[in-house]
Amino acid sequence: MRSKSKTMLFRSLALHSVLVPLALLWLLPLWMMFVFATMSDNAIFSPDIHLIPSTQFGENFAKLQGDIDFVRTLIVSVVVAVIYTFFSVALTSMAGWALARYKFLGRGLVVAIILGTMTLPYFVVVIPQFIMVARDFGLSNTWFALIVPPLFNSLGVLFMRQAFSLMPVDLFDAARVEGVSEWKIFIHIALPLSRPMLAALSIILFLHSWNNYLWPLLISNDRSMMTAPVALGSLFGLIDVSWGGVMVGAVLLTVPMLVVFVFLQRFFMAGITAGAVK
Amino acid sequence: MRRRNLTAYGFLSPYLLIFAAFWLWPIIYSFYLSFLSTRRAPWTFNPSMTWLRITQDTAFYNALWNTLKILAIQVPAMVFLATVLAVLLNSQLLRARGLIRFAFFAPVVIGEAAYAAVFRLMFNTDFGIVNKTLQAIGLSKVDWFANPSAAMSLIIMAVTWRWVGYNAIIILSGLQSIQTDVYEAATLERVSPRQQFFHITLPLLRPVLVFCFVLSVIGSMQLFAEPYLITNMGGPGGATETLGLFLYRQGFLNLNFGYASAIAYTIAALAVAISALNMWIGRDRT
Amino acid sequence: MASVSINQVTKQFGAVSVIRGANLHVEDGELVVFVGPSGCGKSTLLRMIAGLEDISSGDIHIGDTMVNDIEPGDRGVAMVFQSYALYPHMSVQQNMSFGLRMNGNEKADTERRVQTAAKVLQLKPLLARLPKQLSGGQRQRVAIGRAIVREPQVFLFDEPLSNLDAELRVQMRVEIARLHKELQATMIYVTHDQTEAMTLADRIVVLRDGLIEQVGSPLELYHNPANAFVAGFIGSPRINFFTGVATEYAEGHQLVQLSGRGSAVAKVATTEALPSGTLIKVGVRPEHFEIGGACGFPIKVDVVEQLGSVSYLYADTTSEYPLIVARQDDGDHRSDELTISIRAGKALLFGADGNRLR
């Protein structure tokens, strides 16, 4: 018989001696992002190792702003993400409600098509999407092009279908007996009761849109309608670019999401794992 | 009941309209496109310029090979690491849980452009912190952007850094859905923690692990932004050019939509096949 | 208020028949209880009246209106659910007024109705609370209040008390009986608890496997069950069944020799003689035994339940249905070996098909 407390102590030490260094390693790129953002380009490209933030954040921001008017691209990104999230939540929760609440002709088919085609890579649709929006409609560099095509995302449909089907049917039946219309049942009962789910879904969708890279890269190459990640990426290949400035851009892209992540971690985790359980 | 059918379609149709226009129709259209020669107008039916060409294009095989390398190395390594992480993070003994979880989960929210920029600087050949550290401990520096295998390792490291936490979250939730009384019963029957892990935890986690594998396979097949942004569009000399990047080059730089569609369908077929293989290997054998 | 009639109503879920031709007329102002074991179709029948389930064939009238194709909200019914079905995000006040508000009822009228219902149910101090801040009994009262506010033609109750503990259940039972008296409303009430049915109902409808077995007043069902199933279902503790063989018939009484009980004989008034030797099922309620007697049989008491006013003696406890005998004294009869006999004229006879032989 070994002593229980000794075993525990040994296990705890082993656990932390693995996890702590690994965690520090994982934090390093994030930390370096902030450090780089505060260093002058000369300091970044110098032979010394810098691990402590410096003081050049303002200067770097000014250079970035001079290079690509980053604030404007951030505004585009925010507007796109907010509108996209709103519409995606609205459309997909309505669809999820229909699939969870009603037995209707073709329900199985709709679910099968959505589930089946979602396993196909995005590449299969991006070319026709591009031809349709850019060439046929001539809508490159518009809000429509940035916001509407990505609304196909069915994550919310599956997510909200799950949420609604877990609610007790009696609630909706009670309202039905009271003569409340189906639309009002949806608005006044189903939606308010799924607030945590809606929050989780909104966070995930906002993040999707905020970080979306390929579609905005294809469809929005005009300076006035560029999203922030695309604008930042466009600097990488240039010779005469301020890397301190680029890192300021990276920080500005990342910090809002980190704040959301820290304060709404519960919803965030729910959003990620809900995709896994289906 | 007809009235309820109508109500259901009323709720469904706005989404369905978008879904049909921007997902269902494009799937069909790109299949049609994959048989067209689109190099010059007017587009003509000519599968030899798409499907036949794909079988002969060395650039395609290079991209396929690179993608398979990432698939074979990065996916198993990452799922393994994510499993270990999830088990460790689930430990009752863990201190500073919030901070340690933050370290692994934070990369999940970081966009490709932002982290690509950091990795470029950290792995910079002359001034990056990685090479400086290597030299400080007496190793020679690595030319991460000019050496083909080093560039590939860089992509693999970057993708793993970004996605391991995501997978760990999923596996962690799988772990936490296992009833604790199963372990209590096993402990009372003198089953060791190691045996518990291999005979209880792993079998119960299997569906979740299969899910992670499938998700990562589909993700890797679509890898685009990392080689585009970190290794300068698949450099050096195409050593990190993935199928996604190859498709981007054909479709959106050369504007050869027909060929790109054939590539897209090839990627889709491979992704489905490899996912199916994963599911078959991880199937319920009982 | 209105009557409800159900004519030849059936319900199929795919190949499964849940209701197999039900006929019933509920009078205006009557409280009718549907009772039966789980899966007998009683809840389905109630939900068909509410309009929450489609009717496969037959028709349902509320008042003079055929309601088969009328939406639930337009049928003039109110329903109380087993789960209460209170909207968790709304206060008591909002819960009660929700239906009226959504249908554009005049504000002052809605408020008046809520206040009246709250007064009747002593909910006034709770109006601002959320459902999660209420006890089970209070939630049930809110659910009932929500039904009252609608001023419906018919109240429907779907096992409303099964989520409450025993004491509250008795309380709420009395409360519902009082409400029925006060509102003079037509009420249809579903339960699997025969005590609830006995205490509340004007008439009881006993269902089994989608068929109505018997309709009648509580005492009618108790004293005059139409078949062995109703006899077994109504009455607590349960009726005792014996197998027996018909012997003589004299002076309007049939004698039945109980099998395996020595010389025990049951004497039952019937209209005509049974052929001698007919196999019969004999039902005897626990209070219809007496100690001693001429044609008795011996039992050994295994367990005694002393309830104060009455004691129940259990014998043959290893068999599926123990023999239960009621006694009006407080003595400890455990391990007693007694001779008991059936009170003259108190047994019920059933044929091999389970139907009552009168």
Count of individual beta strands of chain A: 0
Integer average pLDDT of chain A: 90
The proportion of strand residues of chain A reads under 5%
**Most strands sheet of chain B:** 2 strands, antiparallel
List segments of chain B where confidence is low: pLDDT < 50 over at least 5 consecutive residues.
Answer: none
State the secondary-structure class of chain B: mainly alpha
Q: Write the CATH architecture name of chain A.
A: Orthogonal Bundle
* Number of β-strand runs of chain B: 2
CATH superfamily of chain B: MetI-like
CATH topology of chain A: MetI-like fold
Percent in helix of chain A? over 70%
Specify the biggest β-sheet of chain A.
none
Task: Please report which band the strand proportion of chain B falls in: under 5%, 5-15%, 15-25%, 25-35%, 35-45% or over 45%.
Answer: under 5%
CATH architecture tag of chain B: Orthogonal Bundle
Main location (chain A): membrane
Pfam families (chain A): BPD_transp_1 (PF00528)
Subunit structure (chain A): The complex is composed of two ATP-binding proteins (UgpC), two transmembrane proteins (UgpA and UgpE) and a solute-binding protein (UgpB).
Membrane topology (chain A): Multi-pass membrane protein
